[in-house]
Specification:
4-stranded antiparallel sheet; 149 residues; 7-stranded antiparallel sheet; mainly beta
Length: 149
């Protein structure tokens, strides 16, 4: 379950990953910068300018891997994120500064490039993409767009 919201300063994201096997969550990456995409995780792609992308991967314990245009590093802009666990799901909540994702003056009807991926390892392995990329997850020409309404 993915929900988005926005105001003049931020884009907000809330993800709820239903998981009947919470005790089997895989979170092997323990430090930021680790290979979180092998864990139960959420990948998020947001614009970082013309033909540039932020790529975030949080595992269910909140460990973050980040890259910009396929160059690993630390995020250079303002955002906040946290993960949590419920009875039958794990969650991710995040807020991103609109200017950092290339939206200087958000208005209704504006389109923002967007892609979200769930990597599920608990129970059985699967990868769910919001916009199919027909190959690797990082294929921006197939990413979708969200409209600010």
């Amino acid at each position: 379950d993915v929900r988005l919201g926005w105001d003049q300063k931020h884009l907000y994201l809330r993800v709820r990953c239903m998981e009947p096997h919470l005790q089997k969550l895989v979170c092997d990456a323990r430090e930021d910068g680790g290979q979180t995409w092998y864990d139960d995780s959420i990948e998020l792609y947001l614009p970082a300018g013309p033909d540039a992308w932020h790529h975030f991967v949080w595992n269910a314990d909140g460990v973050l891997y980040y890259e910009r245009n396929r160059e690993p590093g630390k995020p250079d802009g303002p955002f906040a994120a946290r993960t949590g666990h419920e009875t039958d799901a794990w969650t991710l909540e995040a807020a991103f500064d609109m200017r950092w994702i290339g939206v200087s003056s958000p208005v209704r009807g504006a389109a923002i490039g967007f892609q979200i991926v769930r990597n599920r390892v608990a129970g059985h392995e699967e990868c769910s993409l919001w916009a199919p990329t027909f190959g690797t997850n990082f294929t921006p020409e197939f990413f979708g767009k969200i409209l600010l309404t």
